[in-house]
Design goal:
144 residues; alpha+beta; Translation Initiation Factor Eif1; 4 helices; 5 strands
Length: 144
């Protein structure tokens, strides 16, 4: 059992933090009321292609990704069970968790994300390549 402290700790005064030498917002303080950012009207953004598709009822084309993706089969370090990995620069900047969920549903196998790579249970190399191509990925390289 721990011993109780008989005296309370003395209160400490807060130390002042470091101050900025340059204030990046100083120019905004001196702005006149007429050119204030708060009073400025929002700038309209026109996207004619999207508007045309919405009016015509056409489906949006799938984005084409041209960076390389390597799809390979691996057994090492997995208790002798085979898995299929998809990794590479073509997956960068994508929501890999959502993509892994979609692939798991469409392939009927478990899928997860490990270290920036999608890992699908089983030997699913051909099926995984086909699913990635349907989703707009190109430049898929087959590994071992």
């Amino acid at each position: 059992m721990a011993a109780r402290r008989s005296q309370p700790e003395p209160e400490r005064e807060p130390q002042p933090g470091p101050t900025l030498r340059h204030n990046p917002f100083a120019a905004l303080k001196g702005a006149s009321a007429g050119s204030s950012l708060e009073n400025a009207p929002p700038t309209p953004v026109h996207e004619p292609e999207r508007e045309k598709r919405a009016k015509s009822g056409g489906a949006q084309p799938k984005p084409v990704i041209h960076a390389a993706i390597v799809v390979r089969r691996e057994k090492k370090g997995r208790g002798g069970k085979a898995v299929t990995l998809a990794e590479g620069a073509g997956l960068a900047g994508r929501d890999l968790e959502a993509l892994a969920r979609e692939l798991a549903k469409s392939l009927g196998a478990g899928a997860r994300v490990e270290d920036g790579a999608i890992v699908v249970q089983g030997e699913q190399t051909d099926r995984l390549i086909a699913q990635l191509e349907q989703r707009g990925f190109h430049g898929i390289v087959r590994g071992n």
